[in-house]
Amino acid sequence: MVNLEGVNTNPDMLTLNNSLSNIHLDKEALAQRDEEAQFLRQLEQEKLPGMVKSKWALTYKLKMDKAIEDALDHEEEVAEKVKTKGRFQIQACTNAGNWIRDRQWIYLANPRLKAVEEQREKFDTALLDKRREQKLIQYMALEQQYNIVVKKPKGAG
Fold it and tell me: Does residue 2 sit in helix, strand or coil?
């Protein structure tokens, strides 16, 4: 052990100017001090240059960085589509609306075309009515001949 009697122990005041006569060292403490200094010098020589980190420290740092990155990463939330059928009170342009408007302009420009299309539509509906009546007659014949109930077509009385 070092005996520092009468010597200022402030590190700033301990200088080489202090003589050995003021510091009383026993031989065992001096030997232990030399041994510790030699051990520290050997330890200093064994160190690798730069900072060396263990595998655990590197993985811990990687995990912490990943957690911070994930916390800061703001993914845009996918907005759910809202069912909007019938909710808008505005006149929105649609393909059907454009077709109707264009057809009205065509009819204004060519009234004969309108009359021809109306005739064609009447003819088509007449054909459909005729087919329906033929089916009704066919079902009535089946019911009378085989006594089975046949499903009637829509719109039949």
Answer: strand
Q: What is the number of other CB atoms lying within 10 angstroms of the CB of residue 100?
A: 11
Q: Give the structural domain span for 103.
A: 95-146
- Domain boundary (26, 46, 66) is at 46
Q: Which of 153, 133, 130, 152 is nearest to 143 (CA)?
A: 152
The answer to whether the Cα torsion of 27, 29, 30, 31 is positive or negative is positive
- Rounded to 5°, the CA angle 98-101-105 comes to 135
pTM score over 0.90:
no
Residues 6+ apart with CB under 8 A from 61: 53
pLDDT tens-digit map of 64-73: 889 888 888 7
